[in-house]
Amino acid sequence: MKDLIWGIIGIVIALFGAVYLIKLMLLKKSGVETVAEVIAVREKKKGAYVHTLRFGEWEKDDTSGFSQPFNVGDMKEIVYNPKKPSQFEYKEELKKNIIIAAALIAMALVFSAKWLISGVGAM
């Protein structure tokens, strides 16, 4: 029985990963690419920096929390949601996050299959 529970937990993790992956893919497909200027850097907590970016008529904080701060004045390529500009990703991070999310979903499904097969076999 506990094997089935572990299998279901893996499926739930894969579902959450799929929601995140879909969100990223939609941003990549329908988002607007632009160049943003770093106008401020602050240390949110020790070793985690938040950057304020200016693009178009907006000034928005990133939500990534980088361990190395960007320099004020740096120009960064971003992809933002035109309906909600506060939702943006750095272009290079967007590609990387899509790959990571897909790999994690695949691992969760393999994890689930292993536990579900052993759980069904034990019945």
Please, could you describe this protein's structure?
This protein is of the alpha+beta class and 123 residues long. The chain has 2 helices and 5 strands; from the N terminus they run αβββββα. It has helices at 2-30, 91-121, and strands spanning 32-45, 48-55, 58-61, 75-81, 84-90. A 5-stranded antiparallel β-sheet has the order 3-2-1-4-5. A hairpin with a 2-residue loop joins β2 (48-55) and β3 (58-61). The N and C termini lie close together (8 Å). The model has no long low-confidence stretch (mean pLDDT 91).
Task: Please describe the structure with a list of short key phrases separated by commas or semicolons.
123 residues; 2 helices
The number of distinct β-strands equals 5
Structural class: alpha+beta
Q: Give the strand line-up of the largest sheet.
A: 3-2-1-4-5
Order of helices and strands: HEEEEEH
Beta strand %: 25-35%
The biggest beta sheet reads:
5 strands, antiparallel
Average of the residue pLDDT scores: 91
Q: What percentage of residues falls in helices of 4 or more residues?
A: 40-55%
Sequence-ordered SSE layout with sheet pairings:
Elements: H1 2-30, E1 32-45, E2 48-55, E3 58-61, E4 75-81, E5 84-90, H2 91-121
Helix pairs in contact: 1-2
